[in-house]
Design a protein that fits this description.
The structure is a single chain. 18% of the residues lie in helices and 35% in strands. By secondary structure, it is of the alpha+beta class. The protein has one domain (22-134): Hotdog Thioesterase (Thiol Ester Dehydrase, Chain A), CATH 3.10.129.10. A hairpin with a 5-residue loop joins β4 and β5 (112-125). The longest helix is centred in the middle third of the chain and has 20 residues, at 39-58. It is elongated. It starts with 21 loop residues before the first strand and ends with a helix.
């Protein structure tokens, strides 16, 4: 008989070959009296991290229209160094869906790394009038670089 596979075990490293969209360390004002960082603060940082690839793909302004899923896997503490990784998982006519994973580096001298949050958010490209607009073709974005 084999042991069941569990997916709740902490990660032991940052995602290989990927660069974080955002890195930040929460301060005491971001936490409750017990030293646990507020979930709302983490959600705001996730929204910022997810908006970065969405803004690049939209080649301009985006607005968050949905938080499709959000899971707090482990608590975040004052002094944790958080790394936010964001990947576009779906592109529509005006919308971009982004998956965000958050890792906490605890006790950086001992390299204790834990995946603390994962979320999926949807953004919509907006024009100057703040109304939805078509995304530019991917080819047009690649040819300008």
């Amino acid at each position: 008989m084999t042991a069941p596979v569990t997916t709740d075990l902490p990660k032991t490293g940052l995602p290989p070959g990927k660069m974080p969209e955002l890195r930040v360390m929460p301060s005491p004002s971001d936490a409750n009296v017990y030293g646990d960082v507020f979930g709302g603060w983490i959600m705001a940082q996730v929204d910022l991290a997810g908006s970065l690839p969405a803004t690049r793909r939209a080649n301009g302004r985006v607005a968050t229209i949905a938080v499709n899923s959000f899971l707090f896997k482990h608590p975040v503490f004052i002094g944790d160094l958080l790394s936010f990784y964001a990947d576009i998982v779906k592109v529509g006519n005006t919308s971009i869906t982004v998956n965000v994973e958050v890792y906490a580096e605890r006790n950086r001298l001992q390299a204790d790394i834990v995946k603390v949050t994962e979320a999926t958010l949807t953004y919509v490209a907006t024009g100057e009038d703040r109304k939805p607009r078509q995304l530019p073709p991917l080819e047009s974005l690649l040819s300008t670089r």
